[in-house]
Amino acid sequence: MDLIAGRFHAEPAMAFLAERPLLARCALMGVIGVLVHHLVFIKNEWHMQGPRIIKSAIAAYVVLCFLEARKTLDVSAFGHAGLILGSFVLSLLLSIAAYRLFAHRTRHFPGPRLAGLTKLWHMYQCRHGQNHLVLERMHREYGDFVRTGPSEITIFHPNVLALLDGPRSKTSKSVWYDFLLPNSGVTTIRDRGWHDQRRRLWIKGFSNSAMERYREQIEAHARDMDAIIAAANGRPVPISTYIYWFSFDIMGIFAFSRSFNMLTTEKWHYSIRNLRRAMTLLGPFSSVPWAAQIGFWLLKGYWVVHDWHTMIDWCAQQMQLRIHEPDSHDVAQGIIADSRKRNTVKEDQQQLVGDAIVAIVAGSDTVAPTLVFAIYQLALNPDKAEKLYHEVKDVDLSDLATLKKLPYLNAVIMETLRLHPAVPTGGYRDTPPEGMMVEGTFIPGNTTIVAPRYVLGRLESCFIRPTEWIPERFDTQPELVKDTRSFLPFAQGRYSCLGKDVAMIELWVTISLLVSKYRFDFPAGKREETIERVEGRMRDQFTATPGDLSLVFTKREVASSQ
Q1: What is the mean pLDDT of residues 415-429?
Q2: What's a Gene Ontology MF term here (predicted)?
């Protein structure tokens, strides 16, 4: 039948089936289902083919109904067709289940039985968008190596980060990174050579002169946020909202040389509102790419799937505007110039749109939660906020050379990234065909490995008092860190964070400005409620999304030189 991408000729096969007794036809389709599993589905990648497979199944049912109707001439034809096709589907699913439970190369690893059977179990566990907590519970129950999917092992050993992305790593990016297809941004490219080529184009946007321009824009936008806070005059401020406005405004300039102007209009830009709604898809669906593709197909004009496609269309429009504008000093300049040089602007549309999406999402939705959690922790720990104040109060925000050397400021940032990583569980990798050893445990070839930074940053084997926010562990009390391998906030090697320098400038400037000008605390009687909302309701949507944070900002009596 025409079930697998047109591999079979439907009519002759169906005609042959129609000549056999019903029971024989069902039995034959059962055998075919097992063969299709072992000869077709068990090989290669099928995560992008979900819609096509469903269409093929529907077409097969229609053909079967037609053939059965020619024999019976009554409504039983529909039932017979359903039984025949159902026999195929049932045997296919049973074959898959038996293989995964009893013969799969990862069957010996501990983990929930249902997780080894299907990733749909994991998707259900993540229905509230808290995969970081799901994996934390699995680590407590099953240990350092856990089977979290039929072909997926989640590793909670501190050395896993270096093994996955270190200079000698032979791992590759997993099917998760096909989320944007047919668009492809620099961080979603799975082919190493192609990735390295695109990365070199991006690097041109991070020159020293570019960093100074970005710093000026960052400082200007930070002062815009400061003005909104000051206007509140002691009333509770929705600081997490302002921080997201600030971060996305900066990334608009960084990517397209135009701000979203949310800090000046004091309202969400419609495209960013769509983006943030669309990102909720990544909570449950991030671990099941094939289900996401089916959802994108079935619900294209509905629910948050509509927001997802609207966001992609908006990024495409912005890239088109940027292509036809004079050269500006932004990250798009290098990638557009390369396409113009090769006269392939039209052919490169999907790459350019993908890069636009990556710039906005990876650049904004990672810095913003880090800023939110840093301010949140400083509000929880006013003694540490005062300690930081005395370090930054007289520093010129334009003096990056001084900012980057401030020990306690950097310790505050590093400790925030450890306890609240911007990407809590993302970064899926596939082992090479020959497999690989991880701390004495062999991981079979072509197995997806997950290294959840949220759990790795809280390992008792690596950190003393791991769930406490103690910046001193990265400053005056290094003995609180027992093993540094589990903490690589910006990754390393070919997949290290391209925007690290821009992110650090945002963090240095914004934290220094707010701490030097204000004391901040929770609204009266709202401390415990805020803690539960910010941390307890945090969502893992590839990037961390903390709950809403409101604080009362009180101007310091001694005016800062800033």
Answers
A1: 95
A2: monooxygenase activity
Instruction: List the structure tokens of 325.
Output: 């504008």
Question: In whole angstroms, what is the distance from residue 12 CA to residue 496 CA?
Answer: 54
Phi, psi angle pair for 547, to nearest 5°: -65, 165
pLDDT above 60: residue 336: yes
Angle at which helices 192-203 and 349-364 cross, to 10°: 70
Q: Are 124 and 454 contacting, i.e. CB atoms less than 8 angstroms apart?
A: no
Residues 6+ apart with CB under 8 A from 230: 553, 555
Give the tokens for residue 322.
Answer: 């940027």
In the chain, the amino acid numbered 316 is A
Burial label, 465 (beta-carbon count in 10 A; 0-12, 13-18, 19+)? exposed
d(CA 504, CA 517): 20
The tens digit of pLDDT for each residue in 433-492 reads 999 999 999 999 999 999 999 999 999 999 999 999 999 999 999 999 999 999 999 988
The C-alpha torsion from 348 through 494 and 422 to 270, rounded to 10°, is: -10
Cβ-based neighbour number of residue 193 at 10 Å: 8
Q: What is the 3-state secondary structure (H, E, C) of 455-496?
A: HHCCCCCCECCCCCCCHHHHCCCHHHECCHHHCCCCCCHHHC
Domain spans, the chain: 10-102, 192-268+280-302+348-555
Tens digit of pLDDT for each residue in 185-241? Answer: 999 999 999 999 999 988 888 888 888 888 999 999 999 999 999 999 989 999 999
Backbone angles phi, psi at 549, to 5 degrees: -120, 120
Residue 560 tokens read as: 């800062």
Which CATH architecture does the domain made up of 192-268+280-302+348-555 adopt? Answer: Orthogonal Bundle (1.10)
Annotated binding residue 497: yes
Distance CA 269, CA 172 (A): 36
Distances (CA, A) of 239 to 217, 229, 488: 20, 8, 27
pLDDT number for residue 6: 45
User: What is the phi/psi pair of residue 149, to 5°?
Assistant: -165, 170
